[in-house]
Specification:
Layout lengths: L26 E6 L5 H8 L8 E4 L5 H11 L8 H25 L4 E4 L2 H11 L6 H11 L7 E6 L2 H10 L12 H14 L5 E6 L4 H15 L1
Parallel strand pairs: 1-3, 1-4, 2-3, 4-5
Bound molecules: thymidine-5'-diphosphate (TYD).
Thymidine-5'-diphosphate binds next to helix 1 and helix 4.
């Protein structure tokens, strides 16, 4: 049974049982660097998708995941080892899959997730320059994914300069990653570009443009899945 979640995605959880004709739901993931506008695009999607679609975020989405999220993103968390950081993201995702994504997809619901496993490859492997961690991410994910491989990944490809400027203009407090260097975010982008096709179909959208222009491409991409 899924527990309610505090915060941004509260309304996502209704009953996870009894939607459809037995078909598995579609799993759509949004990925992108800081300031790529993912959250705004996901917000716009809400009106377009079938009722009962589950919107969630990684890390987070379920109570334990939100607890891990606070810990791993907080600027007060100091001296965290790169492997610990990676395993915390993997742990949050494992719980999100077990508690929310797998049951939702199995009951025929569509799931839209803000970030997923490619974020760990992009940030913890490429951003942190730990290529030796790539097999760790892949192997752990292969064991814990419960069949939750994205059907479609929408990658909002933003130039780090532009993305970081946008992120700094946001009202929310910056997280530990907003304060990384441009070089770090260049590596994150490289990681995404190299691995974008590792899990399901994907599309890369130029996110240096206005929200409206990006939305037109996002809408078209999502229509093609529906
Ligand atoms: P969030 O506020 O969701 O950032 P954004 O609005 O840019 O999506 O914070 C998530 C942060 O966590 C983001 O900086 C990327 C980072 N992250 C990782 O480093 N590894 C991961 O596996 C995930 C899922 C996120």
């Amino acid at each position: 049974m899924t527990r309610p979640v505090r915060g941004l995605y509260d309304e996502q959880i209704t009953s996870l049982s009894g939607t459809s004709n037995g078909a598995r739901g579609k799993f759509i993931v949004f990925e992108g660097g800081e300031g790529s506008g993912k959250s705004a695009q996901v917000e716009r999607l809400r009106g377009m998708l079938p009722r009962g679609t589950v919107f969630t975020r990684d890390p987070g989405g379920v109570e334990t995941g939100e607890d891990i999220r606070r810990l791993v993103l907080s600027k007060d968390t100091r001296g965290i080892d790169t492997a610990t950081e990676l395993l915390l993201f993997m742990a949050a995702r494992t719980q999100l899959i077990a508690e929310l994504v797998a049951p939702a997809l199995e009951s025929g619901k569509m799931v839209v997730c803000d970030r997923f496993v490619l974020s760990t490859i992009a940030y913890q492997v490429y951003g942190r320059q730990k290529m030796e961690y790539l097999p760790l991410v892949k192997n752990v994910f292969a064991i814990v994914n419960r069949g939750c491989i994205p059907d479609f990944t929408i990658f909002l490809n933003v130039s780090p300069q532009i993305g970081l400027e946008r992120a700094h203009l946001r009202l929310e407090a910056p997280n530990r990653f907003d304060e990384e260097t441009v070089a770090f975010h260049e590596r994150v982008r490289e990681g995404y570009t190299k691995h974008i096709n590792d899990y399901g179909r994907s599309i890369s959208i130029n996110a240096d443009r206005s929200l409206e222009e990006v939305w037109q491409d996002v809408e078209r991409a999502v229509q093609s899945i529906l």
